[in-house]
Amino acid sequence: MTISMTPIRSFLFVPGNKASWIEKSVTADADALILDLEDSVPPAQKAEAREIVKSKLAWLFEQKQRAWVRINRSPHLYDFEDILAVVGPHLEGIVVSKPVGPEDIDTVAAMLSEAESRNGVPVGNTRVVPLLETARALQFAYEIALRDRVPAIVGATAKNADVARALDTVWSTEGRETLYLKSRVVMAARAAGKLPIGGVWQQVRDLEGLRASAERDRALGMSGELLLHPSNVPTVNEVYSPSPAQVAYYDGMIAALDAAQAEGRASCIYDGEHIDIAHVKTAREIIALARSFQG
Amino acid sequence: MTISMTPIRSFLFVPGNKASWIEKSVTADADALILDLEDSVPPAQKAEAREIVKSKLAWLFEQKQRAWVRINRSPHLYDFEDILAVVGPHLEGIVVSKPVGPEDIDTVAAMLSEAESRNGVPVGNTRVVPLLETARALQFAYEIALRDRVPAIVGATAKNADVARALDTVWSTEGRETLYLKSRVVMAARAAGKLPIGGVWQQVRDLEGLRASAERDRALGMSGELLLHPSNVPTVNEVYSPSPAQVAYYDGMIAALDAAQAEGRASCIYDGEHIDIAHVKTAREIIALARSFQG
Amino acid sequence: MTISMTPIRSFLFVPGNKASWIEKSVTADADALILDLEDSVPPAQKAEAREIVKSKLAWLFEQKQRAWVRINRSPHLYDFEDILAVVGPHLEGIVVSKPVGPEDIDTVAAMLSEAESRNGVPVGNTRVVPLLETARALQFAYEIALRDRVPAIVGATAKNADVARALDTVWSTEGRETLYLKSRVVMAARAAGKLPIGGVWQQVRDLEGLRASAERDRALGMSGELLLHPSNVPTVNEVYSPSPAQVAYYDGMIAALDAAQAEGRASCIYDGEHIDIAHVKTAREIIALARSFQG
Amino acid sequence: MTISMTPIRSFLFVPGNKASWIEKSVTADADALILDLEDSVPPAQKAEAREIVKSKLAWLFEQKQRAWVRINRSPHLYDFEDILAVVGPHLEGIVVSKPVGPEDIDTVAAMLSEAESRNGVPVGNTRVVPLLETARALQFAYEIALRDRVPAIVGATAKNADVARALDTVWSTEGRETLYLKSRVVMAARAAGKLPIGGVWQQVRDLEGLRASAERDRALGMSGELLLHPSNVPTVNEVYSPSPAQVAYYDGMIAALDAAQAEGRASCIYDGEHIDIAHVKTAREIIALARSFQG
Amino acid sequence: MTISMTPIRSFLFVPGNKASWIEKSVTADADALILDLEDSVPPAQKAEAREIVKSKLAWLFEQKQRAWVRINRSPHLYDFEDILAVVGPHLEGIVVSKPVGPEDIDTVAAMLSEAESRNGVPVGNTRVVPLLETARALQFAYEIALRDRVPAIVGATAKNADVARALDTVWSTEGRETLYLKSRVVMAARAAGKLPIGGVWQQVRDLEGLRASAERDRALGMSGELLLHPSNVPTVNEVYSPSPAQVAYYDGMIAALDAAQAEGRASCIYDGEHIDIAHVKTAREIIALARSFQG
Amino acid sequence: MTISMTPIRSFLFVPGNKASWIEKSVTADADALILDLEDSVPPAQKAEAREIVKSKLAWLFEQKQRAWVRINRSPHLYDFEDILAVVGPHLEGIVVSKPVGPEDIDTVAAMLSEAESRNGVPVGNTRVVPLLETARALQFAYEIALRDRVPAIVGATAKNADVARALDTVWSTEGRETLYLKSRVVMAARAAGKLPIGGVWQQVRDLEGLRASAERDRALGMSGELLLHPSNVPTVNEVYSPSPAQVAYYDGMIAALDAAQAEGRASCIYDGEHIDIAHVKTAREIIALARSFQG
């Protein structure tokens, strides 16, 4: 599997119109923030929010806080002014709501290329994480995941969210009604070499419920969760950190190749698999990632 | 989502060879009837059943009873004589068993066009609801749902039915073995802007079992159920009626645009969504539908 | 459904480097053996294992023991020398691990054609059963199942196996995390007219757990299981044998056509289906198979 | 290339309502006849023509005259009564006008299966040669050529024919305006292992023009021509007979393998190609065909 | 064939920065004008040209002059400001240069929907005629032609134009090097029920050359030509007007149905085709069009 | 257009069994050599030829002579031993005959990856140029051209070659019968950002015929030719060298951006196109290439 992006365990929404919340959110320990210009911003404050978000990106970058922006869309098109405002060297990518299908990803990619070209960023620099919230986008999850700029797709469900309206499902704690949807997103993402992201736990004060929900997502193969509140970050980071067994597996892999190299061989069999320097490079990255997660 | 057909909560089979049953069935309060020429008619009575069904369509139409006919198929072809007999201004559509794939829908559509042309009905008038009962039809559920004449697809399962034979599954009350199948039909239908229909509860006297089964289907996103007995209609109609929350949502949408228009605006934000006259038109239809369901 | 291969209820792995185990395994009553050249053989014994396996195929054939071989693959290619060594009149087919997609099946098919041509076997003779262990292979399960040489596809999961690594799932006894995967494999296989095979129960001494696991797979529509130990064969053979109800159904079908033919007709309706001599031919095969399973 | 049908150099239309013309046409030396129920039969004589054609098929078969029938189509569907009338053991296949795309071939194939089943012919027995006369059918020429029952596709053009209307081309003797169309049909047919058939020369008395036109088609790779008049058969048979060079090539191939076999080898290199018994089998068929053409 | 747009025989470019030329061009008798904001406008005058074009659209509409606008594109995106400026009730559609493939048509369609929504025009109102000037767009000509807003596609070639650079062809008067390209565009357009448009004759003073070139395009099935100079309009209008034979054909069709209706029939056979009121409606439109062309 | 390979004007076959011919061929001034292990080597010398070719690759590399190898294929598979023998740091790529379709390219790519891995070359290093000599490969020319390792595809025709047999065409000097084929290869290659290569002139002593043939291919958009004799190199190099007009165009582009940069701008309009540093980088490469050709 190509890891095309450092995984995001906790992907935390912050309203774009709240400058102080944005500032405070860097202490939440979220792997990445989503500065929201869309649903969490009242219509009257959209313009102001765009300016606030634009002004905070460099500062967040200095704090080593990975930052994304969720842009607006009309019924017809993603908001080009939002894109022009936020594309730049400090933005990791944008989050887009409700694509109708792969065509919307192509369109937003063309708009990003134009904005990158105008704003002096290398064309192709800005990533896109789509929220698969329409039935058609879910049907074409694999085709969307194959798109170049897309490092992850989101198969999130919540009690009163767009996905439930799109499929007309009835929410349950256990999630029988969305097991297919979430499993489909996981397989589509992994088949394309991309990351699947789950969520959303709306009852933000119920941390036990959050843990159970995250563990269900984790068991299905999700790599992280959308989050609505900073207090939810630690639980989710814990659920999604590489397990000691995984760390031990990769430690063992490194040791195995070291031993083989000491005997003059360039590769060896580890746990039944042929491994060589390429595998060990990946292993070192995962170990480093796990360590960075441990703080 | 395009609502391409008024939803059918209760889709009730009536044997086509029983004239009196057909007459009585209009009192069952089913959203639509399926006059069956196929499995519920003994071979010796096929010809008679065709005449009975043909003769009852106008009368049902006068009673404002939506009426469909399930036609026969040989191993090779749907029955052209059945089609020629029933196509006309009083038929809403036909139900077809066991298509092997989208090709069978194309073929039956061509036969319908011919029958419409011969019988003086506008070409394209007759709808087709396919029962996805072969593994290949289920594999191609989305492609089938995209076909023009198809307003709904059926992902029904029952203890001893064709789907179970096709996939060689073992039936359980809870339906773990068909969760994938039903979820797949829901997503395929919704992605194509069509309606998914579930069922079939064979133990027609067990109304509690029926309610539980219908609620499981409803939670997955089904919009209605195939039914085998008139006594099952009320339970299913209740489970599948728009909820008060849905009605309130659309009432609120109408009020929001009314308020905006009073201030001279053509659109507004409602519940985080841009809405205009098109949305309100849909809202009024759903409210009207909900009221009609309340009878 | 085209039955393109006599079903395999119990598909038992035997390490290819253990000549005596291979000999003993014919007493296990497994429907077919997989002589393994891959994971269960230590690297140092690969060459020896190939010779052992090669030398045992004719003997197994004489014992009427169906025999398959799992060949090795490097990260890039299936092992052509393995293929050249084992292809011949006594091999039913090969089992291939971790195809990345349908292209790998095409490649191995070309290599098999070459080996068949060199070894004097009719081109196309050797079958291929792929283990769908990568996310991409699972995404393309239907396309893989359509390939000519493929009579069955395997959607097996285990606590510490490749599939779990590919999708990053967390194993549970009940298997919620792989319900989608297994259901998808069943539908893909059946839609292509092929057989789905499940498994793998790793806790080989826990026969109750094995039975429960096999019954869950059986309910989903699987036709058999991969097995790791001869002691597991009887349980699985029992779970996957045609049920008395199935046998009765086909007995009834034969009787129905006999009766019709006695009246001078070539076909009749049986259990609501048109049947003729072709159906009865299939029925006789299934009855014969069921009887052979009864030993 | 799979030769899936004995080639037809001269494919001669005969009006289906002219019993005496049909009888006389066996003396024309055409490789196959097309008894036409469609354009060459006046509407008032359609029913009579169907009876005439039906009654002549067995007699033509006895004369060893290959016989096809062109059936009618309405704007919506091929004529099922035509199909039911002519399908039988003495019919090689049907010719169908103006398919709109591959769907029409699928539909006519289902109707043929039904007719074969009713008329006691093995299902799949009747072949279909489509005239690609709509732009969409030409766009999908390869997909049409892949269909099982289709052994050949026709890319015919004429001064005032359907193709010219479909593409709105202006006819020229040299055919610059249809070079793309004819070349496309040749490549599509050959890529699917099928035969491309050209034509139509409408100026039936201009035999020099016919020869030039046939030679242009032949150079593009066509394997035969539709013909409108018996007098055109000899010219076309001559143009499309295997050339002496081709016969010599295959004679040489047979000799080369004979020589190799005399030395105990099963294969050899002939004209730079590996050949074995399979190639020689094909060679013998082509030689036999060429000889039969020499009559 | 669906005629989805009144054909354009002469499609005349006028530089968008020349107000007086635009005014004068209504006397040129061109079927439609293309007010050009792109290549024929110097960079320094782009903004001014946009205002000029915007200001002339209503006036042209009053003159009953069909008007289109060619918008600019950067390497990444069509110009959204151009689109916002010109979309409105007086614009028939836009012409877009160098799409890379169908994705670009989807993107420009989304931008048009947004502009229509903002400018108070029904969504979907504005048409798009793409110039197929990249190799990839030509490869996907059929897929582009299928797009909803596209009523015609342009397969134009010229001595020093983009297509020649894209394919690296060498121009000749006779056009052997672009015969494939132009034929492919014709078939793709017609297969999708759309119109193919040819051109471009750059030597605008050589009217004999223009006529020969237009006649070559016309013979291939083109329906009109891009033009660079008003003096070229009459020649092209003449070449592309329906021929007397076509007019006579449709006059005959109308007469035939009139005769049938006088005898109480709703349909008849005309020139070997079933015709009814729908065909006659089309016939009347074509006759009316031909008369309007005759002025 | 992505130039994914330095173009090859003259691509000269040299028999692999003739060591002295290989040595002498470096003086022929061919852009690249094809050391042939296939058709030009007698069966008895295949093994020897493989050793000769293997031994010459490093020497050719030192001479700065670009070198490719055409490997053998059986009816089923490309020759793995050929591949293992020649893959290494001095081989630019392999030429493969008669792929049946894209699957064969996938298969040979997997074999190359394995050989690269074994021989210590970076995986993906070796390129593949396929000769499209079967009808199916020509039908799938675009799909083949999209493959990663493929920098060019060959649409060559000759009087007695495989393509003529595959399509059953009759050769003419002017090439009417292969105009579609060659044009199709050009468009497919360019649409995929790859190079189309033409040929083959078999009458190697007729240099005037060669020039005319090469100019016809060049006009269609070919970028070079397969050649059978060293004496043909100069003619072909001349025909395919960038024209003075092309050189002037790119010189002008460089000057235009220089001028713009002198005024502090990063981009400008040149010949109606937006250009920036990326375009100039390409321009410099083409100028350098043209100069190197002038040698």
Describe the structure.
- The structure is a homohexamer of 295-residue chains.
- Chain A has 295 residues and is of the alpha/beta class.
- Helix content of chain A is 47%, strand content 13%.
- Chain A has helices at residues 19-25, 46-62, 80-86, 102-119, 135-139, 141-146, 162-167, 179-191, 207-220, 233-240, 244-262, 277-294, and strands spanning 10-15, 32-36, 66-70, 93-96, 127-130, 152-154, 195-197, 225-227, 268-270, 273-275.
- In chain A, strands 5-4-3-2-1-8 form a six-stranded parallel sheet.
- In chain A, helix 9 (207-220) packs parallel to helix 10 (233-240) and helix 11 (244-262) packs antiparallel against helix 12.
- The longest helix of chain A has 19 residues, at 244-262.
- Chains in contact: A-B, A-C, A-E, B-C, B-D, C-F, D-E, D-F, E-F.
- At the A-B interface, helix 5 and helix 8 of A face helix 8 and helix 9 of B.
